Amino acid sequence: MKHMNSEVKEERTSNKKRIDLFLVPIVLIAAFLNLFKIWTDEYANAYYTAAVKSMLQSFHNFFYASFDPGGYVTIDKPPVVFWIQTISAKIFGFHGWSVILPQALAGIGSVLLLYVLIKRTFGVWAGRFAALAMALTPIVPAVSRTNNIDSMLVFTLLLATWMLFRAVRTVKFGWVLAAFAMIGVAFNMKMLQAYMVLPAFYVFYVVATKITWKKKIAFLTTATALMLAVSVSWAVVVDSTSADKRPYMGSSQTNSVLELAFGYNGINRLTGNTSVTGSSHKQPAQTEQQTASSETKQNSNSSADSSQSSNQRKSSFSQKMQAPGGGNQNGMFNTGNPGPFRLFQKGLSDQISWLLPFVIFSIVGLFAGVKFKGPYTAKQKESLFWLAWLLPVAVFFSIAGFFHQYYLIMLAPPIAAFAGAGAVALWSMYKQHNDWKSWLLPGGILTTAALQVYIMSPYVSSIGVAPIAGVGALGVILALVLAIRKQRKNSLTNYLGAAAMVVLLAMPAYWAMTPIIYGGNSMLPSAGPDSSSGMGGPPSTATNSKQSGFNGMQPPGSSSGNSSSNNQMQPPSGSSNGGQMPGGSSNNGQMQPPSGSSNSGQMQMPGGSSNNSPMPNSFSSKSSSSKRKSGGMNAEVNQKLLNYLTKNNTGEKYLFATTDSTSAAPYIIKTGKPVMAMGGFSGSDPILTVSKLKAMIKKGEVKYFYLSGMGKGGQSDVITWIKENSKEIPSSKWQSTSSSAQQGPSGNGTLYEITLK
Q1: Tell me: the pLDDT tens digits for 87-140?
Q2: The Cα angle at residue 131 between residues 149 and 351, in degrees rounded to 5
Q3: How far apart are CA 602 and CA 563, in angstroms?
């Protein structure tokens, strides 16, 4: 008890001390990287932004996180982060930046939390360096500058970590409950991804808490039960509510939150299995793997910030969209191929792995001399916590069948923690020992510099040779000089050590700035010279943004222009049809839309066309070239189509219906009116039946249907019925030009009208 009271007294005393002046510039750097120019992103991730627009309109939509104002289908994630975004939009007004702001602040908060966590045990300089490493980890600001969930998730898990550390110091059961309950809250942000930290929480509490085994088991069991109760609380309420009184649970096949949690957002991420298991149609599910890829390339046609140069999107889809094992071995979405060195492969290494060799040397140093049976120091216990966070997450990303680059933010806290704690520990060993431990610091500097040269080498055409050669040369020189001066303890040696840390952080800092310099992607955020493409990885030889990937995504009703060979999607030479997109036909490895499309060889978004003329607007009635509409989706509205639908609406609940969320989102954002995404996010959800649709039409809920041929999985019967029982609206009435039809990925997009008595 006396020890506990002294701990609390010490903490209160430290809290009264003045602000760490060295921390101020670190926080300012984090604020700049996370906040600067977020106001240029009008749509953010349009799929989620549309949901916020809908959630602002009623508590029913707010509670269920409905994608559309009509409460037809939810988004594919739990609601907590979107509740926060909606509150932000309510306070500051509905803007792209207001839905991004909570994540940007969470990114800054994570830097501060890591400083607090590391400083107490490893010292103030360790805390400073850990905070700086967290701020400069490229994927951290890249994600935090969007309305995706992961930045808020990491902040919540770090807050839970702070509670756990306090529980161990004070030996108070209430803090244990709070820590595990916070993981339950994180589960309601991104489901099973929140549980990745559980090994660290269990191991640390067992090893670090000075209570009896009986109490440890009892406390952890109770805390785990509370975590599970908080985790499933929203799911139980939703799943127990009658299906006709709530929206359909988006991206599930059985209209169940629990199925979504443990299937689509759970085990399927590990296995990579994206087939529709709950639908009778047995067609490939066009989930994130299909839709997000096409949504990403929509950005190449969006209005860019006026400060962005013409070569900011030097990426080619043919170099990036490959099935695992195909072409240049970058895997689907440039996430590499499963294996022990996956985090060092292209596309992943430049997002998260800049300091990994130094971290490995730090782990060796921090655990040097540790005996299995203990006793353990406070530094060793907390090092064990960060190791138990790092290893399981690293293993998951090394073997997972499907994930996106921005998920790697989950690795940022333990990497930054070891970078900070390790820098101080290795420096101490370097100055105080003459054995093998004194070589860890120069060894860590040398190998880290070598990895950074390897990471940057594919980008020589974008960044030039100088920074690559500079990091390599300085890393080698500083490591050698430190090795030679190992026995000398003077100010010059101190400066050399500090210079080495600066060199190792220089290129991660530049990479962290690339979403500001080159523009970001709110659908699939990543860092690097091609960050606006959302695909990471080395750039292609394309000379301007209109040559990259999907060149010409247009909203429903815009005209089609001349096709361009730059729009063709092909896997690299040497691969067969392994790089095929779901639903695409194979032609010697070429990725093509199904037969019937007039632009064979081109892959486009629903309602997309091959011309590059931007359509009017988004949040306001004026299009601004200084605003980025980088929603990663078809984030623009065809005004002529909107005018036609509005004028001819005779009281129907839905402005129109379409196959998936891609075409629906921008119209929801602009008008705030219900637009029905019949098949949910990707068009594959088995939500609608012919009989249900007939009933909706008879009740006057929907009359117009825009069909582009995409997203038929799970709803082909409905689409067939619509075509057979509807009147086609002449294109001259709603298309933006005299073009007779709107090009889609598997045929001509068409507007239909159905009225039943």
Answers
A1: 999 999 999 999 999 999 999 999 999 999 999 999 999 999 999 999 999 999
A2: 50
A3: 8
Using CA atoms, how far apart are residues 215 and 167, in angstroms rounded to an integer?
13
687-745, pLDDT tens digit by residue? 999 999 999 999 999 999 999 865 455 678 999 999 999 999 998 999 876 443 343 33
- Are residues 180 and 224 in contact, defined by beta-carbon separation less than 8 angstroms? yes
Q: Where are the alpha helices (DSSP H) in 171-312?
A: 173-190, 198-208, 213-240, 257-259, 268-271, 288-298
Residue 296 in contact with residue 534, Cβ under 8 Å?
Answer: yes
pLDDT tens sequence across 518-552: 998 899 999 999 877 665 555 543 333 333 333 33
**Helical spans, DSSP H, in 518-628:** none
The residue ranges of DSSP E strands in 585-628, in sequence order, are 585-587, 590-592
| Contact between 535 and 334 (Cβ < 8 Å) | yes
Neighbouring C-beta atoms of residue 518, cutoff 10 Å? 25
Q: How confident is the model at residue 474 (pLDDT cuts 50, 70, 90)?
A: very high
Cα–Cα distance between 660 and 676 in angstroms, integer? 8
Provide CB contacts within 8 A for 259, sequence distance 6+.
249, 252, 253, 278
Hey, what are 458's tokens? 């594919």
First CA to last CA distance, the chain: 79
The answer to whether residues 72 and 656 touch, using CB atoms and an 8 Å cutoff, is: no
Can you spell out the DSSP letters for 380-423?
HHHHHHHHHHHHHHHHHHHH-SS--GGGGGGGHHHHHHHHHHHH
